[in-house]
Every structure is written in structure tokens, then in C-alpha cells.
């Protein structure tokens, strides 16, 4: 397609503010029957908000409502009706002392009823008064006007606990003599979209200005036991190291003494370090730690934030000590058990230290300078590190909850206006706009790599692959409703585990500026209005075409070391003892892309299927209409490898390890009497590879004979103190093996099919795979027929995601192969 068919916009530079009309405009609504997250964004708690007085939504003049839980008439009756008083809107100033509650909404279908009383400050003083038994007036409020209000079970239990612990909280925090609260579900009119937009935009200041933040995680056994262990852990370390113990920055040596010591008496139970960590693991598995909004709520005012249960309030800083201890254990002894998301430890710990440094320097107990209280980061980086590990009731909050953390979206910036919370927009609108914003602002295409961690996209042709009783929309994303190139906010990628763009050595087309074209306003081509948001046009060149795909993704599972492996004579007593330890270790296996079945044998199975003539695992359409088995095609005489098994094996392993090696035009030169270059030249890596082979192939039957001898020697003849595990180093997890028409090996997503095109988009670190829409059996509808250019149809592509292409991942390849001189093509992604 000639570039003149499109009018290019300004080349994207880092920090560019220029926006295209096709990226930020309001689009038509997606039909309700198409999956766009419409069902999961509904507020499913029905309440009467008619008594709520309007809040000011004018920027800089916002106000809030506060809640008060009235004391029970019978202090011994936990089941007594919960009566809460909700104030009129109050000016948002620093003179208001209130507690901000941080909690998970929880299961929307589990609801409880409370009584809510709306209190107006202009009511007469002789209004009916609710009084506790001691006769002290709590607040002038007419309790006869109370209305039934539904809340989730989680909030109901939190309010009950706060009512019961009122005396204890007052004793510890004397300012709270009547416990005014800010609770989002009650203090925001959830039926008023404009108010929700406004209150979400000031959420950070609401929590920052609170005199106290209480975190509610429930009071089940795992929470209570976990808090007892955490308080005991801090006590033990404080007693042992005194002033040398820095609770915000404990040393590995200090934490290591806890891990290596004997039993501890915590919470009336005696546990060793392993038992303590098991309790902590269950505590960290609490859903609270994976809700996106609470990350902001807990970090706004960290030194005055406490985990609350009825009988205790535990400082948030204690949690970070336990998290560090748990992470250290994982470093020393890999167990694969879940820990806190990385953002909790890294973000909150840095925030604590930043706050402490600021106070020590300025002598303030609580900094009032907003920027001084915040550690801001790049919005894209924040989203990248949170969207797969955190959840939200409304997927749009995966972005909105991060805006106050981001450098680019502070108040008054243009980016803040463009990405401001707006619950009138669909999920597709929000994240399509965000994807284009990331490209324009950063000047690179890293955001496209995030699609590797998202759910699989179901295209029109893919629907026939599912059985009749299976519904793709339950675990897959319907690409008919969401652009194939746009980020989807929920994680849950079934196979892929993270973008390859994190590899520092990959810089394929980064020396060329991103070319983002304007298609919606082209004078000749007429795109239907409801499709303009579906298209993004980028410049690049073709570098290959997919010939065959082995659609069985690589995954890691936990398994016990096989006895056949342990029967070997290891190179040292230390290694012998270590390998005889009966514990689960990660192993590489293959998984079926549809029924999720696991195929034992792992890498040896994959290699044998690729190299053996009789293997029907990869069937390739021949130009003459026949079929070729994998070995006949990959290693055939006259082909790229020309039957050189050693070189095929070298490139195979380098592909699994994502090796960026580029050897130029001489990459296949090899002398028969020399060992081919490859990852096994490193002794530790050689051991790792040998372990992987040994587990599934103890006789080393599958590797080329010469390679097998090298690996045997590295593992069984050399003393290695602690071998690394190849599956942990195999960064191709979640990807499928594929071969190009010119016999290049690579890794891709399970969505890729034969005939897909491999391209290098300008400004990208990686190659991407796209599928010509013409290749599909049918278009999605008549709207895909564009007026003004029949040729445009030949340049419409589905974006299938990033890929690894062996020896073609670096700018040196781009330069040495003369790619820079090739004519640019415009790829219209839909």
C-alpha cells in the first residue's frame, strides 16, 4: 500500500502531546450482546439515593460526605441493627478529622442491610437525639427518618467491627471520640456518574487528608493468625537487634536469623520458621492485596495506616517486614507459592522511606505538600506492573486507580484531561484511547507487548474451533468487540506470561521513529464512523511469513524429581545431597491449546517431534498441495540447515532461551570437529539443560550425540554447588514454537496460524505477527467495505501479538540485512 494513501501525522517523539482525532473521540456504543465488559461494570447493589444531596464537582472545590456508626443499645448484642448517619456534603479541608476505610467490596451477590440516616446541619437543635447509655449526646439526628440501605457482606462486617471496637480506637487515638468515617460505597452516590467521576479523581487526596486509614481484610482465621505472626516477627527482630533493626529497611542478615532459628510462640501456638511462613502465605493470599484501589488507599498515608481487626490495629509497616521475609525465603528456597504482588513491597517501601526522609529533613509530622508525599512513576510502567496482578470490580479502574500515581497525569496536565475518569465510556473506549495515548506519549510501541499477558483473542475463524457446549467469552476476549491491537485491562492470559519487550538486548526497530497515521480524516478513504476507533495505522516493513506453528505452548509446572534422575552419580557430595531432597521442582511441559491437557516429556518431546521424520506433529501445506513432516521441511537437504542436526539443536535451545545472538550472514558456518556456539558453553547453563534432559530423558537419547556427551560431562563430572533450573531460565514460557518460510525458528502466541505475516513496526523492540483480514473466511459485516479505496482492504490486519524470531531481534540485523532501505508499508490494524 502506497504511503500516499494516508496522511501521516507528526512523527511520534517521547512526550509528544499531539493527538489524532481517531484515537480520543467518543465512539458509538458496542451492542450489549457483544462482550465488552458491560456485564462486569454494572453496579449490582440497588439502593435509593434520592436523599443524597448533591456534591460539588467543580475542580478545586470538591466536598465529601462523612459517615458515623451509632453505638448499639445493647453492647452485648452483636446482631443488633447497624444504624449509620450520613452527613450533608462537607467542605474538604484539613480541619476535618475522619477515618478513611480501605476494604474490598467483595462478592456483590452477598448483601446485607443497614439503616442509613441522612443528617442535615441546618436541622433544629431539638431534633430527636440518639444517645448512648451514659447519657452523652453523640450527634443530633432524627433516627425516625432512617432508610434501609444495602451493602456488601464485607462492608457490613467492617462496620460491625468498628462499632464494637469504638472504645479501643478512642483509647489509642483520642481525637476520634465519635469515629467519623469515609467509606466509598456509602459516601459516594453510586448512581450519579458525574459524582463518581469527580470523587474518583480526588480519591488520593481523600485518603491523604484522613487522620487515620484503617484496612479491613476480614477476621477469618488466616487473617488473625497472620497478624499474630507478623506482630511476633517484628517483636523478635526488635528485641534481638534493638536500634539496629530498621523496620522500614531490615537487612537480609537480620531476616535470615529468623528463617534459620528454632520455634516461636506466636498467638498461643509454637511454630518453626517454615510453619510461620505457611501462615504468612495464607495471609498474603487474602483478596485485599490484589485489589487495585487499595494500593492507592494504603499508600496515601502509610505511617497512619493500620490493619484493623476488632481487638487490634497493626501498623502497615509491619506487613512489609513480613513480605521481605517471605520474599527472602523464596529467593533461597524456590517454592513457587504466591507472595504479595511486587507493587506492594517495592512501591510502599519506597514510599515509607521517602516520607521518613522528608520528615527528618523538614521536621514535619505529616507533610502537607502533595508532591512531597508521593512517589510518582510513569503511567505505562505503573499499569504494566499492576494490571495482571490486581483486580477491580470495574475494569476501567485498572487505569483510573493509577492516575494519581503517574507523572504525566497530575492535576492541570493535558494527559489528565484526556484520561480522566469517565464511567460513561465503555471499557473498549477507555483502553483503546489509553493504548494510542501510550504510543503517542512514549514514542515507542512497548504497550503492544502487554497484549502478550492478556486473554486470548477469539477471531471470527476461531469460533469454529470451540465445542458447542463451550462459551469462548468466559475465558477469551471476543475480538469482534475490542480492537486486536488495544490493551485489555484484565489479566488471566491462559498461556503467555509477560511481554518479551523487557529484554534489554531487543531493539529491532527502535532506531526508526514511530509512524502513526491519520486514517479517520483522509480526504478519499471513507471509514464508517463506528469503525474509526477500531483502526490504528502504523508504519513498518515485512521481515517474514509463518510457515508452520507447533500449537502446544510451553508451560512450567511443579513436580517431584524422578527417581530415575536421582539414580545418577552426581559430580559432588553437595550436589548429590541437594538433588536427593524430596521437594517439588519446576519442570517444563507442553500444554494443549484448547483442552489444557499436559503432555509429559517437555523439551525432549518437542525436539523429537521437530526433528523426526515420522512425527506428524507439525503438518505444513506444501505449494503443490501435499503435506510435509517437520524434519523433512526443517532439516531437508538444500534448506537453511541442510541436515546439520547440531546447528538445528543449537538454534532450538537459543530460541527457548530467547537468545538475542545475531551472527550475520555467517550464522550457519560450522566445522564438524568443533562444538557449536550456544547456551551450553556456560557451565551453569549446561548443567541446567542437562537436568532438564535428564528428568525426561535419563539416557540422553534425544539430543544430538555430541551435545549429549557435553551435557553429561557438565552435569555428572563437574562439581556444581547449586545447579540452576532450566525451566526457570526458559523465558519462552507460554509461547508456541513456529518456523518461517526461510527456516527461521521462533516463539509466538497460540493464536498464530500458517500464513500470518511477521513485521517490524518502526519504534518497536520486537517483531510482531499480523494476519491479513483477507485471509479470514469472511469479514465481520458489510461495514468493513470501505468507500474510496478497494486497495485498503488488502492492508487490513489483525494484530496477533509479539513474537521472538531467532537471530532477528536486534538493530544490527535490521541494519546488516539492508532492512532500512526497504520501502515502508502502512499496516492498518483492526
Automatic annotation (TrEMBL):
Pfam families: HET
Residue ranges constituting the Heterokaryon incompatibility domain according to the UniProt record: 98-297
Protein name: Heterokaryon incompatibility domain-containing protein
Recorded superkingdom: Eukaryota
Record's compositionally biased regions (Polar residues): 19-28
Ranges for region Disordered: 1-39
Amino acid at each position: 500500500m502506497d504511503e500516499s494513501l494516508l496522511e501521516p501525522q507528526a512523527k511520534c517523539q517521547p512526550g509528544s502531546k499531539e493527538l489524532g482525532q481517531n484515537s480520543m473521540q467518543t465512539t458509538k456504543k458496542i451492542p450489549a450482546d457483544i462482550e465488552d465488559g458491560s456485564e462486569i461494570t454494572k453496579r449490582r447493589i440497588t439502593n435509593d439515593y434520592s436523599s443524597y444531596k448533591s456534591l460539588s464537582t467543580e475542580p478545586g472545590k470538591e466536598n465529601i460526605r462523612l459517615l458515623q456508626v451509632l453505638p448499639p443499645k445493647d453492647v452485648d448484642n452483636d446482631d443488633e441493627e447497624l444504624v449509620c448517619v450520613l452527613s450533608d456534603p462537607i467542605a474538604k479541608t484539613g480541619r476535618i478529622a475522619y477515618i478513611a476505610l480501605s476494604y474490598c467490596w467483595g462478592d456483590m451477590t452477598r448483601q446485607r442491610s443497614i439503616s442509613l440516616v441522612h443528617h442535615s446541619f441546618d436541622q433544629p437543635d431539638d431534633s430527636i437525639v440518639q444517645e448512648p447509655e451514659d447519657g452523652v449526646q453523640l450527634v443530633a439526628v432524627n433516627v425516625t427518618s432512617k432508610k434501609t440501605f444495602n451493602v456488601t457482606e464485607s462492608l457490613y462486617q467492617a462496620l460491625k467491627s468498628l462499632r464494637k471496637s469504638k472504645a479501643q480506637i478512642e483509647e489509642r487515638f483520642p481525637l476520634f471520640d465519635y469515629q467519623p468515617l469515609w467509606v466509598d460505597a456509602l459516601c459516594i452516590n453510586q448512581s450519579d456518574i458525574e459524582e463518581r467521576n469527580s470523587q474518583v479523581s480526588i480519591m488520593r487526596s481523600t485518603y491523604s487528608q484522613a487522620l487515620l486509614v484503617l484496612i479491613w481484610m476480614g477476621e477469618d482465621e488466616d487473617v488473625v493468625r497472620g497478624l499474630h505472626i507478623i506482630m511476633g516477627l517484628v517483636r523478635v527482630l526488635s528485641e534481638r537487634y534493638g536500634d539496629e533493626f530498621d523496620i522500614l529497611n531490615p537487612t537480609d542478615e537480620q531476616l535470615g536469623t529468623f528463617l534459620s532459628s528454632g520455634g516461636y510462640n506466636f498467638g498461643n501456638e509454637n511454630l518453626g520458621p517454615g510453619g510461620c511462613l505457611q501462615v504468612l502465605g495464607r495471609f498474603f493470599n487474602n483478596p485485599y492485596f490484589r485489589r487495585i484501589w487499595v494500593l492507592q488507599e494504603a499508600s496515601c498515608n502509610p505511617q497512619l495506616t493500620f490493619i484493623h481487626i476488632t481487638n487490634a490495629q497493626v501498623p502497615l509497616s509491619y506487613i512489609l517486614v513480613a513480605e521481605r521475609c517471605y520474599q527472602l525465603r523464596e529467593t533461597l528456597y524456590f517454592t513457587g507459592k504466591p507472595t504479595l504482588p511486587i507493587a506492594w513491597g517495592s512501591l510502599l517501601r519506597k514510599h515509607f522511606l521517602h516520607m521518613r526522609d522528608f520528615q527528618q529533613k523538614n521536621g514535619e509530622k505529616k507533610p502537607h505538600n502533595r508532591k512531597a508525599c508521593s512517589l510518582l512513576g510513569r503511567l505505562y510502567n505503573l499499569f504494566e506492573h499492576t494490571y495482571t496482578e490486581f483486580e477491580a470490580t470495574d475494569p476501567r479502574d485498572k487505569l483510573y486507580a493509577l492516575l494519581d500515581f503517574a507523572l504525566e497525569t497530575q492535576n492541570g496536565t493535558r494527559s489528565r484531561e484526556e484520561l480522566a475518569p469517565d464511567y460513561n465510556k465503555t471499557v473498549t473506549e477507555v483502553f483503546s484511547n489509553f493504548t494510542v495515548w501510550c504510543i503517542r506519549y512514549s514514542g515507542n510501541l512497548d504497550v503492544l507487548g502487554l497484549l502478550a499477558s492478556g486473554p486470548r483473542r477469539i477471531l471470527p475463524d476461531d469460533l469454529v474451533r470451540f465445542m458447542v457446549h463451550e462459551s469462548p467469552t468466559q475465558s477469551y476476549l471476543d475480538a469482534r468487540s475490542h480492537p486486536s491491537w488495544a490493551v485489555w485491562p484484565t489479566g488471566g492470559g491462559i498461556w503467555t506470561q509477560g511481554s518479551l519487550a523487557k529484554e534489554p538486548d531487543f531493539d529491532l526497530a527502535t532506531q526508526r521513529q514511530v509512524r502513526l497515521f491519520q486514517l479517520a480524516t483522509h480526504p478519499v478513504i471513507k471509514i464508517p464512523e463506528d469503525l474509526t476507533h477500531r483502526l490504528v495505522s502504523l508504519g513498518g516493513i515485512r521481515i517474514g511469513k509463518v510457515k508452520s506453528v507447533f500449537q502446544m505452548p510451553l508451560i512450567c509446572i511443579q513436580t517431584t524429581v524422578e527417581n530415575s534422575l536421582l539414580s545418577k552419580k552426581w559430580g559432588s557430595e553437595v550436589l548429590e545431597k541437594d538433588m536427593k531432597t524430596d521437594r517439588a521442582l519446576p519442570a517444563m511441559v507442553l500444554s494443549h491449546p484448547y483442552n489444557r491437557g499436559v503432555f509429559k516429556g517437555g523439551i525432549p518431546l518437542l525436539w523429537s517431534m521437530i526433528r523426526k521424520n515420522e512425527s506428524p506433529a507439525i503438518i505444513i501445506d506444501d505449494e503443490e498441495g501435499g503435506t510435509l513432516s517437520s524434519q523433512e521441511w526443517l532439516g531437508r537437504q538444500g534448506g537453511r540447515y541442510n541436515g546439520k542436526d547440531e546447528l538445528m539443536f543449537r538454534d532450538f535451545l537459543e530460541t527457548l532461551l530467547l537468545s538475542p545472538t545475531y551472527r550475520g550472514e555467517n550464522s550457519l558456518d560450522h566445522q564438524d570437529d568443533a562444538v557449536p556456539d550456544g547456551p551450553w558453553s556456560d557451565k551453569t547453563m549446561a548443567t541446567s539443560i542437562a537436568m532438564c534432559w535428564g528428568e525426561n530423558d535419563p539416557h540422553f537419547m534425544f539430543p544430538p550425540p555430541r551435545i549429549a556427551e557435553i551435557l553429561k560431562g557438565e552435569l555428572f563430572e563437574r562439581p556444581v554447588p547449586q545447579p540452576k533450573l532450566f525451566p526457570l531460565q526458559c523465558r519462552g514460557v507460554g509461547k508456541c514454537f513456529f518456523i518461517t518460510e526461510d527456516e527461521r525458528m521462533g516463539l509466538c502466541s497460540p493464536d498464530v496460524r500458517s500464513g500470518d505475516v511477521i513485521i517490524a513496526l518502526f519504534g518497536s523492540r520486537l517483531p510482531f505477527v499480523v494476519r491479513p483480514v483477507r485471509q479470514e473466511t469472511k469479514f465481520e459485516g458489510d461495514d468493513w467495505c470501505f468507500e474510496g479505496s478497494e486497495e485498503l482492504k488488502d492492508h487490513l490486519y489483525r494484530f496477533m501479538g509479539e513474537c521472538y524470531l531467532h537471530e532477528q531481534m536486534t538493530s544490527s540485523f535490521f541494519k546488516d540485512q539492508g532492512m532500512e532501505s526497504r520501502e515502508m508499508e502502512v499496516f492498518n490494524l483492526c
